[in-house]
């Protein structure tokens, strides 16, 4: 124990230094301590960040002067009406949601076997190696990985030369690439969740005569649900706002992020972009509220 | 059943590694259109990359932003972790949600919210500071998660023992708490740095025109026929370099998961 040495010395010299007094008063007043600890994070995240989000929300109810391009600070619901009424935008929202759901399902399917193997079958050595193998691409550049899929799906690319056909640039390629990008975010929480599931439960289920399928449905799935939900926060949310991958492998198809991006850049319509972003936040808040019930937030 | 599981593992591993391998091989492809299989092998792109000032400058910028954002995230994340793991209070759940929010919300939302706040609300120009602020915001959560997990595991007994023996709270923190947190802090810092180094979406909205980080450089060179082969080389280097933090965090964290996301 490194601390015991000084601690003993401190008892020998009970001097009432300023430091000692303030330390003691902090010790007696946990509320003061808590306030001090929370002040900076709360100022940064609670005031500055939430404040920015609130300001964005307010902007969504303003409009842009089509002539000067300036933001007009008059309350209006036009942006949301436009979002709802114009088919283009409704299609984009629905398309983005389907891609995000597909990516999440695909990742869950790909992640489960390897996470289960890592947690329950592999020897400690193999387990360690697999963890590294799964973590490694997480550190490799996001753009490089998206770009890798550009090489994979392009004409006369890897997929075409091996399989004879390629999905080409489009929504299929975008979905595959997004699933690829966020796969480790699904594997790791699942692995952690499965590790916490006691082996004895699996044995008990088998002893009671359950087939593997039944054990999976009645024992494994319910207990890893929070972990699954935690992983899905990443796969779903990250897909929902992504516009770079779509630009790299998506061809001409557009997702929510692209519309937001175009409205900030080329169209210079911040209020409309803000309205679009508000829709994204609303979807995400509903999603977070739903998965919070499973205890997913403690599994992040 | 077992072979099905093994097949599942093989599929996942192939899915993860084939595209990365393709980037590495393509960086040696003599044909600049990346047709597969490679027509021939060359080191031409590698020497072109070594002389590419734009890419090298971008690496330096990314490192500076990453270090600054990590420093801020370390302070804020640790404070929040202590507050939430050592105290029970009303609104605790809300604050834990608040910490996760910047990473749970799509990057584009955080990006335009901060862009709007800096330019319209505060009337500031975008640049290094706004970029660091933006990056630090979503980096807090990884430090928080690592430190909070470690604090949960440590419990408070050792610290109580230290204070029972007469050590001040500060001395206890310095000599008992901090040493046992060190590896968690480092794992969190590594993740935070990597997150910042790789970020492009929030960066696009908060960096302004002057600052070019590596991801921004890569993205702007991706579609240029002459630069794309150099991007392959940069990609290969990034894949190779990514082994270092993995190895480090594995050695340091002692967690089987190698640090928490």
Ordered list of secondary-structure elements with their pairings:
The complex is a heterodimer of chains A (300) and B (261).
Chain A: H1 2-12, H2 18-28, H3 30-59, E1 63-64, E2 71-72, H4 78-85, H5 87-121, H6 124-139, H7 142-153, H8 158-163, H9 171-196, H10 199-207, H11 212-241, H12 244-249, H13 256-264, H14 270-292
Antiparallel strand pairs in A: 1-2
Helix pairs in contact in A: 3-14, 4-5, 5-9, 5-11, 6-9, 7-9, 9-11, 10-11, 11-14, 13-14
Chain B: H1 2-26, H2 44-50, H3 53-86, H4 92-104, H5 107-121, H6 128-154, H7 157-164, H8 169-198, H9 201-206, H10 214-221, H11 228-241, H12 243-253
Helix pairs in contact in B: 1-11, 2-11, 3-6, 3-8, 3-10, 4-6, 6-8, 7-8, 8-12
Report on this structure:
The complex is a heterodimer of chains A (300) and B (261). Chain A is mostly helical and 300 residues long. Chain A has two domains: 18-51, no CATH class; 86-299, MetI-like (MetI-like fold). In chain A, 77% of the residues lie in helices and 1% in strands. Chain A contains 14 helices and two strands. Chain A has helices spanning 2-12, 18-28, 30-59, 78-85, 87-121, 124-139, 142-153, 158-163, 171-196, 199-207, 212-241, 244-249, 256-264, 270-292, and strands at residues 63-64, 71-72. A two-stranded antiparallel sheet of chain A has the order 1-2. Mean pLDDT of chain A is 84; it is low at 1-14. Chain B is an all-alpha fold and 261 residues long. Chain B has a domain at 54-207 and 247-253: MetI-like (MetI-like fold), CATH 1.10.3720.10. Helix content of chain B is 76%, strand content 0%. Chain B contains twelve helices and no strands. In chain B, helix 2 (44-50) packs across helix 11, helix 3 packs antiparallel against helix 8 (169-198) and helix 6 crosses helix 8 (169-198). The longest helix of chain B has 34 residues, at 53-86. The two termini of chain B are 31 Å apart. Residues 255-261 of chain B have low confidence and may be disordered. Chains A and B meet through helix 1, helix 2, helix 3, helix 5 and helix 6 of A and helix 1, helix 3, helix 4, helix 5 and helix 6 of B.
């Amino acid at each position: 124990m490194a601390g015991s040495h000084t601690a003993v010395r401190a008892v020998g010299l009970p001097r009432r230094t300023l430091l000692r007094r303030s330390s003691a008063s902090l010790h007696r007043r946990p509320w003061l301590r808590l306030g001090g600890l929370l002040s900076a994070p709360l100022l940064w995240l609670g005031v500055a960040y939430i404040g920015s989000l609130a300001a964005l929300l307010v902007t969504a109810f303003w409009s842009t002067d089509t002539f000067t391009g300036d933001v007009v600070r008059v309350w209006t619901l036009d942006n949301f009406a436009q979002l709802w009424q114009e088919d283009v935008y409704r299609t984009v929202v629905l398309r983005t949601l389907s891609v995000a759901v597909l990516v999440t399902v695909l990742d869950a399917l790909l992640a489960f076997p390897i996470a289960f193997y890592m947690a329950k079958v592999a020897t400690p050595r193999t387990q360690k190696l697999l963890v590294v193998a799964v973590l490694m691409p997480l550190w490799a550049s996001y753009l490089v990985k998206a770009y890798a899929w550009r090489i994979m799906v392009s004409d006369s690319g890897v997929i075409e030369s091996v399989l004879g056909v390629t999905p080409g640039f489009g929504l299929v390629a975008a979905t595959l690439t997004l699933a690829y990008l966020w796969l480790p975010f699904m594997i790791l929480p699942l692995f952690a969740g499965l590790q916490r599931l006691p082996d004895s439960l699996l044995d008990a289920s088998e002893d009671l005569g359950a087939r593997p399928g039944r054990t999976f449905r009645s024992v494994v799935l319910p207990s890893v649900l929070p972990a699954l939900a935690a992983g899905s926060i990443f796969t779903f949310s990250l897909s929902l706002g992504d516009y770079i991958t779509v630009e790299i492998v998506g061809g001409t198809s557009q997702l929510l992020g692209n519309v937001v991006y175009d409205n900030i850049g080329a169209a210079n319509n911040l209020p409309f972009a803000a309205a679009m972003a508000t829709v994204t936040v609303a979807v995400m808040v509903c999603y977070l509220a739903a998965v919070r019930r499973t205890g997913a937030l403690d599994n992040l | 059943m077992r072979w099905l599981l093994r097949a599942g593992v093989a599929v996942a591993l192939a899915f993860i590694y084939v595209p990365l391998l393709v980037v590495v091989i393509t960086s040696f492809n003599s044909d600049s259109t990346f047709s597969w299989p490679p027509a021939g092998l060359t080191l031409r792109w590698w020497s072109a990359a070594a002389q590419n000032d734009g890419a090298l400058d971008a690496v330096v910028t990314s490192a500076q932003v990453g270090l600054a954002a990590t420093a801020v995230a370390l302070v804020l994340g640790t404070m929040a972790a202590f507050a939430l793991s050592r105290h029970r209070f009303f609104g605790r759940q809300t604050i834990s949600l608040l910490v996760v929010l910047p990473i749970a919300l799509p990057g584009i939302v955080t990006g335009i919210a901060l862009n709007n706040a800096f330019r319209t609300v505060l009337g500031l120009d975008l640049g290094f500071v706004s970029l660091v602020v933006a990056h630090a915001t979503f980096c807090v959560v990884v430090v928080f998660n690592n430190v909070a997990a470690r604090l949960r595991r440590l419990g408070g007994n050792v610290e109580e023992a230290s204070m029972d023996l007469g050590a001040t709270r500060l001395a206890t923190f310095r000599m008992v708490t901090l040493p046992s947190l060190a590896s968690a802090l480092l794992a969190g810092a590594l993740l935070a740095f990597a997150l910042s180094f790789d970020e492009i979406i929030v960066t696009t909205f908060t960096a302004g025109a002057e600052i070019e980080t590596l991801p921004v450089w890569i993205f702007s060179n991706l579609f240029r026929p002459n630069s794309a082969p150099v991007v392959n080389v940069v990609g290969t280097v990034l894949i190779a370099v990514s082994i270092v933090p993995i190895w480090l965090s594995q050695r340091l964290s002692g967690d089987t998961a190698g640090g928490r996301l």
